[in-house]
Structures are given as structure tokens and as C-alpha cells.
Amino acid sequence: MSEIRIRRAQEADLPAIVAMLADDPLGRGREDASQPLAKPYRDAFAAIDADPNQFLAVMTDGGRVIATLQISFLAGLSLQGAWRGQIEAVRVAADRRGERLGQRLLEWAIGECRKRGCRVVQLTTNKSRADAHRFYERLGFKASHIGYKLDL
């Protein structure tokens, strides 16, 4: 019997989270899951964990981290001062894909955004991730904007 739970990530979860971030063609080129983890990962985790407008979530099964995402709660003036939930870094462990765990995790995250009073839930995904695009559209997300990034 499975014991799937969703909870706030703990520092001990960091190696599993970074390993999932590194486990795809894009992540392999930009992440480093070697142990011990580099200090910037630990520093970023500490900053996220200390910020009440950040929630780094993990999904576990029997204690093993099998999925993750991060929600940033953003205050804004547009939409009459609406809060937004920004979802990023959605990953499911390779050996658990196809079980609808990502859908379960996203539905949970949308519920958390509702609880926090968000009027919009938004996310970005790389243009090359066609499977992710279909996944998000199946969950009701619309590709309504064009996003830009500037690497510094």
C-alpha cells in the first residue's frame, strides 16, 4: 500500500530534489547533482525555507521523495491588487512518471494558491518541453502570454 504525502521540503530532501532537476536533457546541462551538493543549492534552500511567500513542496511515497515543485506567492497591483501563485520546477522522479503524480501535485498546488487568496496561478515551461505543454493544457492552463528571460 502506497503512502503518498505532500509536504514542505526539508533540507534532507535537497539531494533528491536536485537529482530530479538534473534528470532531463535541459537539467543535465545546467544542474549539478553530485555530492556533496554545491553551496549555492544549500543557500537557495535556506532562503526559500525562510521566506513565508515561498513553498518548496515534495511528494513522498513511503518516505522517498518522488516529485517536487515550488510555489512563489506574488503580490501585485494589477487585477486590483491580486495575489498570484507562480509554480516552477515541477519534476517527477523518472521511475514514477506516468502515474498521474504530477497531476496530483499540481492540483494540490492550485489548492494551496486558492487557500492563500491567489486569483491567478501561473507557470513557465521551456518551449522545448512539448510533453509538459500538453500536460499543463490538460489541467486547464492556457498559453496566454509570451515569456522572456535575460541571463545575467
Automatic annotation (TrEMBL):
Is Acyltransferase found in the keyword set? yes
- What's one Pfam family the UniProt record gives for this protein? Acetyltransf_1
Cite the GO molecular-function annotations of the record.
acyltransferase activity
Looking at the record, the residues that make up the N-acetyltransferase domain are 4-152
Under Gene3D superfamilies, the record lists: 3.40.630.30
UniProt keyword Transferase present: yes
Enzyme Commission numbers on file = 2.3.1.-
What UniProt keywords apply to this chain's record, in alphabetical order? Acyltransferase, Transferase
Q: Give the protein's recorded name.
A: GNAT family N-acetyltransferase
- Species in which this protein is naturally found: Mesorhizobium abyssinicae
